[in-house]
């Protein structure tokens, strides 16, 4: 099989590979530290990684992959209920964390290994796994029930990163800057493994700030990855920050993903800097499907064209292929290619339902295709997936958490347009005691403690009853506007 990280095998160089703040690892140092991790986890199958935005997370994941095991990134902000489900479902052989990290009680029963970024392990080992073996198990929020673990094979990681290299002319000379979390696909696969596969460098901000973006882009970084919330804050800051204008103007590539970037923010950034942000489209289960190419038209409101190796089609409600790609006819996106996940862990029913009989993955996203192949996403097939601050959040798990509060009789969750977050989470509550309903801050804290802070409702609306159909199903489209 081919190596995921050619620059780490054989004779790794002294070029900088990773920089997190003032902490730096060269390729030679990364190979040694990841080699030590690989020795420790080899044969463990699935390995949990406490995925803080730190150097140790990157070393841990690379080490797990070098050992031929599968990494299970854990969101450090997950509540006990969500984390407990993920651990029971994935059953990791051990958990990797940075020295000094305080782990929650849910991890108490698991063997812990601290990652030493200055350790020295074998640097010449070739990854001992096949292309079809699992590389990652990433948990994605479904619209109902607990998160599902998408098993992502090694071939999908390599295929997606190589396709993006083709689309974006991404080379080892590029230096990527971002401040994305490292427990999902955008920040981890694209933002860390992407530069390492090319032999380039990544500078992680730790926490996103416009000052950090300006500093790194003006200090030699060539690419910026972000989510719409980040670019919205950039657009708001540009008029009074000449250093930020200079930074974005000089960048080779500005990429937004994880949700649609509003056209208004596209235009404000372009007007201030002369540079256009380009978008791409992917999912946990598919990694990347489409992208605006570096040598193509940066058309606001579109996510570009299918990546090399990816087949994409639109189907109507009956499952038949849409006849006309005319920029107007709407259909559900289905994709097929080497970028796809293999299964939902321990969920053969959900896996079977996700694919057509001839191997197309049903994304649930609805789009139109322009005649020249550009894809424009217009919404979700379902109403229960909320995209907020770059996260895809399932309404069902938030509803379940709200219903655990003693003051809540009924609950529904929807998304509402938000200039900063893309969508904000709105909770519709029927209180157990109409004379003394739980207040919004209490409910937000209740959800944040059980799930994660970014899943808390930003707005709470109170009703006497939720609209339901004859079968008792809540009709969200009938909720008051």
How many strands in all? 25
Structural class: alpha/beta
> What low-confidence regions span 5 or more consecutive residues with pLDDT below 50?
none
Query: Averaged pLDDT, please?
Result: 91
CATH architecture grouping of the largest domain: 3-Layer(aba) Sandwich
Distance between the termini: 55 Å
Shape summary: globular
**CATH class identity of the largest domain:** Alpha Beta
| Domain unit count | 2
β-sheet strand percentage? 25-35%
The largest β sheet comes out as: 9 strands, mixed
The CATH homologous superfamily of the largest domain corresponds to ANL, N-terminal domain
Radius of gyration: 22 Å
Helix content: 25-40%
CATH fold name of the largest domain? Rossmann fold
User: How large is the count of helical segments?
Assistant: 12
Please describe what this structure looks like.
The protein folds into two domains: 364 residues, ANL, N-terminal domain (Rossmann fold, 3-Layer(aba) Sandwich), CATH 3.40.50.12780; 94 residues, GMP Synthetase, Chain A, domain 3 (2-Layer Sandwich). Helix content is 28%, strand content 27%. The strands form six sheets. A nine-stranded mixed sheet has the order 2-1-10-9-11-12-13-14-15, with helices on both faces. Strands 4-3-5-6 form a four-stranded parallel sheet, with helices on both faces. It has a four-stranded antiparallel sheet with strand order 16-17-19-20, with no helix packed on it. A hairpin with a 7-residue loop joins strand 7 and strand 8. The longest helix is centred in the N-terminal third of the chain and has 15 residues. The protein is globular. The termini are far apart.
């Amino acid at each position: 099989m081919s190596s995921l990280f050619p620059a780490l095998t054989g004779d790794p160089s002294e070029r900088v590979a990773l920089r997190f703040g003032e902490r730096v690892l060269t390729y030679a140092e990364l190979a040694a530290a990841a080699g030590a991790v690989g020795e420790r986890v080899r044969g463990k199958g699935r390995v949990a990684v406490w995925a803080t935005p730190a150097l140790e997370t990157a070393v841990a994941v690379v080490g797990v992959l070098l050992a031929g095991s599968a990494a299970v990134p854990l969101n450090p902000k997950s509540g006990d209920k969500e984390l407990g489900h993920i651990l029971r479902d994935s059953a990791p052989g051990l958990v990797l964390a940075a020295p000094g990290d305080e782990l929650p009680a849910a991890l108490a029963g698991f063997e812990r290994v601290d990652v030493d970024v200055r350790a020295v392990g074998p640097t010449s080992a070739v990854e001992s796994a096949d292309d079809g073996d699992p590389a990652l198990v990433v948990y994605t929020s479904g619209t109902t029930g607990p998160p599902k673990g998408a098993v992502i094979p090694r071939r999908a990681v390599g295929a997606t990163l190589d396709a993006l290299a083709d689309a974006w002319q991404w080379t080892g000379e590029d230096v990527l800057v971002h401040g994305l979390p490292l427990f999902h696909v955008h920040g981890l696969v694209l933002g860390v493994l992407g530069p390492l596969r090319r032999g380039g460098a990544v500078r992680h901000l730790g926490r996103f700030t416009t000052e950090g973006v300006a500093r790194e882009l003006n200090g030699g970084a060539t690419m910026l990855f972000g989510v719409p919330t980040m670019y919205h804050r950039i657009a708001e800051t540009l008029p009074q920050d000449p250093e930020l204008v200079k930074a974005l103007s000089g960048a080779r590539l500005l990429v937004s993903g994880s949700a649609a970037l509003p056209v208004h923010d596209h235009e404000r950034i372009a007007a201030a800097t002369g540079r256009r942000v380009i978008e791409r489209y992917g999912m946990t289960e598919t990694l990347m499907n489409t992208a605006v190419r570096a040598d193509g038209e940066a058309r606001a409101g579109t996510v570009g064209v299918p990546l090399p190796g990816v087949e994409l089609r639109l189907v109507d409600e009956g499952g038949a292929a849409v006849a006309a790609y005319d920029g107007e006819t709407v259909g559900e996106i289905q994709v097929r290619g080497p970028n796809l996940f293999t299964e939902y862990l321990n969920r053969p029913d959900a896996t079977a339902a996700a694919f057509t009989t001839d191997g197309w993955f049903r994304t649930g996203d609805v789009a139109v295709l322009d005649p020249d192949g550009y894809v424009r996403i217009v919404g979700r097939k379902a109403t229960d997936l909320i995209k907020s601050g770059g996260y895809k959040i399932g309404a069902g798990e938030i509803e379940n958490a709200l219903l655990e509060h003693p003051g809540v009789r009924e609950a529904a969750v929807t998304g509402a347009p938000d200039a900063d977050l893309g969508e904000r989470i709105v909770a519709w509550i029927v209180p157990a005691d109409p004379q003394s309903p739980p207040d919004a801050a209490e409910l937000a804290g209740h959800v944040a403690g059980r799930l994660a802070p970014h899943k808390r409702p930003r707005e709470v609306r109170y009703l006497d009853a939720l609209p339901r159909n004859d079968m008792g199903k809540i009709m969200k489209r009938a909720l008051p506007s």
